[in-house]
Specification:
- It is a single chain.
- This protein is an alpha+beta fold.
- The chain has six domains: about 5-35 and about 130-240, no CATH class; about 50-120, no CATH class; about 255-300, no CATH class; about 325-430 and about 755-775, Nucleotidyltransferase, domain 5 (2-Layer Sandwich), CATH 3.30.420; about 440-555, no CATH class; about 585-730, no CATH class.
- Helix content is about 50%, strand content about 10%.
- The chain is built from 29 helices and 17 strands.
- The chain starts with 5 loop residues before the first strand and ends in a 5-residue tail after the last helix.
- It comes from Phaseolus angularis.
- This is DUF7963 domain-containing protein.
- Pfam families: DUF7963 (PF25908).
């Protein structure tokens, strides 16, 4: 230290000053409590059973969070931090919870695991994780820009900590500006709880940094705007002084090709979720260079590799279709938007119709995606459907035994069925259930009154400034989240577009207590005395009938919506249609009893929608599928004719006669009578109907779904004519939804439709993506998966909140 330097000691702080010149920069080192200290968190003064239970609850909660994280459902740092109980030295009872670093055995407070991990592991405090500089590396010089506050440069702070940790005993540094450079900024302060234990006595040390006498009077002529330029200059100096990053390990040709194949497969199968231009992003190209892959991929991804990958998928699909004796064509996308698709707006739009081939072995093969250009009339749909049939079958059109589509049942599907007697064309069950909710909304007076009342409440809460402020305040207090009530756009008729109303009903029902709190506020009571609208809304939300009716509407929609999700997940076959609607009738009847609703009008709406969707093939498949055989008193397993009406029995005879050839029609009816009287051998019937629990959903499912068809082809070979019809009927799907395409999938197709070359490339990518989805039986959309991942990422915070809910504050 120079001789002219003097010391002063005040309150445990040592200040080093130079009398000749004002200090250029002063660094304030705040020494914190050692991270390896074994001190325990204080408990409340009452060291009884309640305190012990609170500590145990915190400990068990942290163990649960850590266990989930180790299984891949939580933060990375739990692999290195382990909760432990610290006992009281006298009583031996648990006193507090600590986090133990498994790398260096240091102990930390368990109050904030995320901050502990960031400070102890990421910042290099833990010597066994990634601390200090590597041997042989050159320590970075003190940054030139250290005279500026950290808020002016986001990426300055990591570089300021580049000095070797051992030289400063791992203390956190906080910059204190010299009065000579006073620009109106406040000093940076950083508290770090992870100092080394051997430096506990080094508290509040003040150091003076010298850059030489020539720099002590440094002034920037451009003012504070020069600070960014100075930071860029510092970066250049660091790049010249620090060694360049070593390139990744060299890969041989086979390894490069294998890695590129996987990369391109991922890109194609995401189909638009990752844009083509993203391949040229500088960070991605830097990553490719780091792992030893070529960086220029944009031309290759849309060239030969795309053609080869498409050729493989196409050849595999065509081979599987050729192997099947018959198939069903599924057409999805004619319906623009869905009931719970809240991104759709009023009015029409251009549709991307997807065609999938359902095979008898239970698998599905993607065929093509057709852009309709907004044309959705029945005649056009009929032409497109038949063109697709001939494209798949060639001249042997009898191989297509049916079509299931989400629209045009009344005209296009029936016309094709009338022209080709061997076909069974049905409408999608999913769309039938969705349309039922629209029927309720349109025809049930309860829906109209609830929607009108909720619109009045929601608009009042959102538009009146004083009420809005009260609502937001109460919602944050009660639900720990903000936001107004979601209301439909004024451009759309809420009584005709229920998908836009449903979020509003959800919000009002979930905020019932919040709305009651708003009404009880003193400010709201004052408004009631001055405004009739306020009194009307107050009387409405304080009326129990309003909430009962809202809950009734919401419960009915939730009931049908649950069935929609089940149908979407299970993708039932045609024989399931009649039991499905019977189950729906039973649930609706229970709903009427629960909410004291007159059954007649509701049942009438359900029956009307059932008749619109009904097809005689439902009854025929229900009778012919061994899965639905019923055991009688004699022990026989017989077709469930007693579950059919007289009209449905006649429908079975008529349909089977139509599907059979003229020569076999009477034979089919005779075999049907024998099937009705004899049924199936009990042993085979029980084997077909055997169920097992699904490990994912927990529901009981048929152990071998293909056994219904296989029984007809093996054990029931005596029914030659009836068997040919049965195997072609009972395998057919009741829904047309093969898989969900995300919005980027749609945008890619729509954006490239004008260019022939671009259109071909987009269709190839769509084909590859759809083929891969059906191969792995992935019927969900990327949006749903993202929502699940975001929900999972927040689960740990929720668990931690529960852990610390009852924890002592000190």
């Amino acid at each position: 230290m120079p001789q002219n330097d003097t010391h002063s000691h005040q309150n445990g702080e040592t200040t080093v000053t130079t009398p000749l010149h004002p200090p250029l920069l002063t660094l304030h080192l705040q020494a914190m409590t050692s991270t390896t200290s074994t001190s325990t968190d204080p408990l409340p003064s009452d060291d009884g059973a309640a305190a012990v239970r609170a500590v145990n609850k915190r400990f068990e909660g942290l163990l649960t969070v850590r266990t989930k994280a180790i299984k891949g459902k939580g933060a990375w740092y739990w692999a290195h931090l382990e909760p432990i109980l610290v006992p009281h030295p006298d009583t031996g009872l648990p006193k507090s919870v600590k986090l133990k670093c498994s790398l260096c055995d240091s102990l930390f407070s368990a109050s904030n695991p995320s901050r502990t991990a960031s400070e102890h592991l990421k910042r290099g405090t833990c010597s066994n994780f990634s601390s200090g500089l590597r041997p042989g590396s050159v320590p970075s010089p003190l940054p030139i820009s250290s005279i500026t506050p950290g808020s002016n440069r986001k990426r300055g702070s990591p570089q300021m900590g580049a000095t070797s940790p051992s030289s400063y005993q791992n203390h956190s540094l906080a910059l204190v500006e010299s009065s000579r450079f006073d620009m109106g900024y406040t000093p940076m302060q950083n508290s770090n709880n992870n100092s080394n234990s051997n430096n506990n006595n080094n508290n509040n040390i003040m150091l003076l940094q010298h850059h030489g006498q020539s720099q002590q009077h440094l002034m920037l002529s451009g003012g504070k705007d020069d600070l960014c330029a100075l930071a860029m200059f510092e970066d250049s100096v660091k790049k010249l002084k620090s060694p360049k990053t070593s390139p990744g390990p060299a890969l041989n040709k086979d390894q490069v090709n294998s890695a590129l194949d996987l990369l391109f497969d991922w890109f194609y199968e995401t189909c638009g979720s990752v844009s083509l231009s993203s391949l040229e992003h500088r960070k991605f190209q830097a990553f490719l260079g780091q792992v030893g892959l070529p960086a220029n991929l944009r031309r290759e991804v849309s060239g030969g590799r795309l053609d080869a990958r498409f050729g493989e998928a196409k050849a595999e699909s065509e081979a599987r279709i050729r192997d099947a004796m018959f198939f069903q064509l599924a057409s999805d996308g004619w319906k623009s938007g869905g009931l719970f698709n809240f991104n759709s707006c009023c009015g029409g739009g251009e549709s991307l119709v997807k065609f999938v081939v359902n095979l008898p072995n239970g698998s599905s093969v993607f065929q093509k995606a057709v852009f309709t250009g907004g044309v959705e009339n029945s005649k056009y749909a009929e032409e497109v459907l038949w063109e697709m049939v001939t494209a798949v079958t060639g001249s042997v059109v009898h191989r297509c035994v049916g079509i299931v589509a989400d629209k045009f049942k009344a005209k296009a599907l029936r016309n094709l069925e009338a022209q080709h007697h061997w076909m069974v064309n049905t409408s999608c069950q999913l769309q039938g259930l969705v349309s039922l909710i629209k029927d309720f909304n349109r025809e049930l007076p309860l829906f109209r009154s609830v929607i009108e009342n909720c619109l009045k409440v929601a608009n009042f809460m959102n538009s009146e400034s004083q009420v809005r402020s009260l609502f937001l305040k109460c919602r944050v207090q009660e639900m720990d989240c903000g936001g107004l009530i979601r209301v439909p756009s004024p451009k759309c008729d809420p009584l005709k577009n229920f998908q836009l109303v449903f979020p509003m009903l959800e919000d009002i029902l979930s905020c019932a207590r919040v709305i009651q709190m708003v009404v009880m506020e003193d400010g709201f009571k004052v408004m009631c005395m001055e405004d009739t609208l306020v009194r009307e809304v107050a009387g409405m939300v304080q009326n129990e009938g309003f909430w009962n009716e809202l809950e009734a509407v919401y419960s009915l929609v939730k009931l049908v919506r649950g069935m929609v999700h089940d149908v979407e997940a299970e993708r039932p076959l045609m024989g399931r249609c009649l039991p499905l609607w019977e189950e729906l009738r039973s649930k609706v009847k229970e709903w009427c009893g629960k909410f004291n609703i007159v059954e007649g009008p509701v049942e009438k709406i359900v029956e009307k929608r059932f008749r619109k969707n009904y097809h005689p093939a439902w009854a025929a498949a229900f009778i012919l599928d061994p899965l639905y055989l019923i055991k009688d008193a004699s022990g026989k397993y017989l077709p469930p004719y007693k579950c059919l009406t007289r009209e449905q029995e006649k429908d079975v005879d008529k349909l089977l006669t139509r599907l059979a050839s003229r020569e076999e029609a009477h034979v089919v009816l005779m075999e049907l009578m024998k099937w009705r009287s004899d049924g199936l051998d009990p042993l085979y019937a029980q084997a077909v109907q055997m169920k097992q629990r699904d490990p994912v959903t927990g529901k009981m499912k048929v152990a071998n779904p293909l056994s219904s068809r296989l029984v007809w082809e093996t054990c029931l070979s005596e029914f030659k004519s009836l068997g040919k019809i049965a195997v072609r009927l009972i395998f057919q799907h009741a829904t047309s939804c093969g898989f969900k395409s995300n919005w980027s999938f749609m945008r890619k197709f729509s954006a490239n439709k004008q260019s022939r070359v671009a259109l071909e490339r987009a269709q190839k990518m769509i084909y590859i993506a759809a083929h891969a989805k059906l191969e792995r039986r992935d019927f969900s959309s990327e949006e749903e998966k993202d929502a699940e991942l975001f929900a999972m990422s927040g689960s740990e915070d929720g668990m931690l909140a529960e852990v610390y809910a009852d924890a002592p504050l000190v």
